[in-house]
Amino acid sequence: MQLDHASPRAKTVRIRASRLASGWAASGVRIGFGVIWLIDAFLKWRPSFRSSFIEQLQGAAQGQPGWLAPWFRWTASLVHPHAALFAYSTAVAETALGLALVFGIARKTTYLCGAGYSLLIWATAEGFGGPYSAGATDIGTSIIYVVVFLSLLALNARSGPSPHSLDAKIERRWPKWRLVAEAGAHVITREQPAA
After folding, report:
1. In whole angstroms, what is the distance from residue 107 CA to residue 109 CA?
2. Domain layout of the chain by residue ranges
3. Is the CB of residue 32 less than 8 Å from the CB of residue 20?
4. Helix extents (H) in 45-106
5. pTM of the predicted model over 0.85
6. Which of 35, 38, 61, 90 is most buried, with most CB under 10 Å away?
7. Is 120 left (phi over 0), alpha (psi -120 to 50) or beta?
């Protein structure tokens, strides 16, 4: 059995270095994912997306099992009369998610909203990734986005407040901002001077 005889100060430095490294990693993943969302949002702002919005929803219903037909009929009947509104709303939502990810604004809320939004896209426009028939090789991208958003939430809970985000600046001025920005209970403690 080997005892660690390092000073408490050395242990604190190692812990800080570990948190800083994991903070940079989490921020890098978050920013990279945000860039992906911004590219996707750019494509949603193009006229071709708006003109084919209904066809994409109807295409997702093709080949689905009969028990899912009411879901797809209801979705189409909801969207069809207001297709342009839903197309623009999609572009706005994806732009907002991308910017929030890149700049690190309301991270916890962004991760939860992003996971819910991605699940909605997977259940509608991607047709739950199906139909699952012989030769099917893909479950859809949006369900993977759900996993990435939830992983970012877990990283946020593990690594704590991110100094590489606008949230850090906002939290210094308004500490209650942590409720929308931080996952997990992170206690801020002041270091005791060495005796």
Report:
1. 5
2. 15-181
3. no
4. 47-51, 53-61, 69-79, 83-103
5. no
6. 90
7. alpha
**Measured CA angle at 12 (ends 9, 13), to 5 deg:** 90
Q: Which two tokens stand for residue 9?
A: 């100060």
pLDDT at 3: 53
Asked if the model's pLDDT at residue 103 lies above 90, the reply is: yes
Q: Is 47 exposed, middle or buried (0-12, 13-18, 19+ CB in 10 A)?
A: exposed
Task: Name the H helices within the chain.
Answer: 8-44, 47-51, 53-61, 69-79, 83-103, 107-123, 142-159, 166-173, 178-181
**What amino acid occupies position 120?**
L
- The answer to whether residue 12 scores a pLDDT higher than 70 is no
Give the phi and the psi of residue 77 in degrees, each rounded to 5: -70, -30
Please determine, for residue 108, whether its predicted confidence score (pLDDT) is greater than 70: yes
Of 106, 112, 122, 95, give the one whose Cα is nearest residue 35. 95
| Cβ neighbours of residue 11 closer than 8 Å, sequence gap 6 or more | 4
Q: What's the N-to-C CA distance of the chain in angstroms?
A: 29
Amino acid letter for position 129: G
Distance, CA of 33 to CA of 137 (rounded, Å): 24
**Can you tell me the distance from the alpha carbon of 91 to that of 88, in angstroms, rounded to the nearest whole number?**
5
The two tokens of residue 85 are: 């509104």
